[in-house]
Amino acid sequence: MKPTDLDPMFPPRPTALAQQILREILRDGDWVIDATAGNGHDTLFLADCVGPSGRVLAFDVQAAAIASARAKVEQRGFAGRVEFFQVSHESMESHAAQNSVAAVMFNLGYLPGDDHALTTQSATTLAALEAAARLLKWGGALSAVCYPGHPSGAVEAGAVETWMASQVAKGWRVAKYAAIATRRPAPFLLLAQSS
Ligand SMILES: C[S@@+](CC[C@H](N)C(=O)[O-])C[C@H]1O[C@@H](n2cnc3c(N)ncnc32)[C@H](O)[C@@H]1O
Predict the structure, then answer these.
(1) What does the alpha-carbon distance between residue 93 and residue 128 come to, in Å, rounded to a whole number?
(2) In the structure, what pLDDT confidence band is assigned to residue 168 with cuts at 50, 70 and 90?
(3) Which residue of 65, 110, 144, 150 has the smallest Cβ count within 10 Å?
């Protein structure tokens, strides 16, 4: 086998791993939230998982991100199951009932190729995680892909990991997945199941 024969997607990146795991637990008709719609990869994934009777609530502060995500969703014929909100994600509780949501996905950081100043911020991310925790139904899943490879991302990643760890005392199960021995701190996935 030559190096070029190796699968570049193995081991899976945190974003791909989050989707692989959530696909196993989501069901037709579920309500789910994409807290950082960005270019819409997770929005599209969630819309596929929940089927025509399900509902995806997708949040992003950037008009360009919403437009990009909406275009992807419409192209796949999923527009009827996705609702977009151009507001900060800590307002997600205004749009869903407590204990009603099967999964909330966060992919933190900035929109690839876009203005790096428009990145997620620790304070609003933590407020959004608190809101997500109240919306999740028993056994619901919370995923967060964190990027500690740049200074503000490192602060946010640390804050999110600390918050996730604090949920264990409430009976949640929480895990962390990351590549090891990388040159810079590697992106990691935090995955939690609510109780
Ligand atoms: C890494 S990107 C998300 C990528 C996306 N999940 C995808 O699959 O293409 C992070 C996104 O979070 C958005 N964002 C930043 N602050 C936010 C906030 N307070 N509320 C909601 N979205 C926010 C950015 O505009 C950016 O589009």
Answers:
(1) 9
(2) very high
(3) 150
* Domains with residue ranges and CATH for the chain: 11-109+119-193 (3.40.50.150)
Q: If you measure from the C-alpha of residue 6 to the centroid of ligand 1, how many angstroms do you get, rounded to a whole number?
A: 31
Residue 65 CA: nearest ligand 1 atom is 27
The answer to whether 29 and 7 are in contact (CB under 8 A) is no
Establish how many alpha carbons lie within 13 A of residue 165's alpha carbon, considering only the half-sphere containing its beta carbon: 7
Whole-number Å distance between alpha carbons of 167 and 191: 11
Distance from residue 59's CA to the centre of ligand 1 (Å)? 8
Segment 46-74 mean pLDDT: 97
Q: Which H or E run contains 185?
A: none
Q: Is 118 touching ligand 1 by the criterion CB < 6 Å?
A: yes
CB 120 within 8 A of CB 159: no
- Check: CB of residue 193 under 8 Å from CB of residue 141: yes
Q: Is the CB of 40 under 6 A from ligand 1?
A: yes
Helix (H, G, I), strand (E, B) or coil at 193: strand
Q: Are residues 91 and 124 in contact, defined by beta-carbon separation less than 8 angstroms?
A: no
State mean pLDDT over 119-130: 97
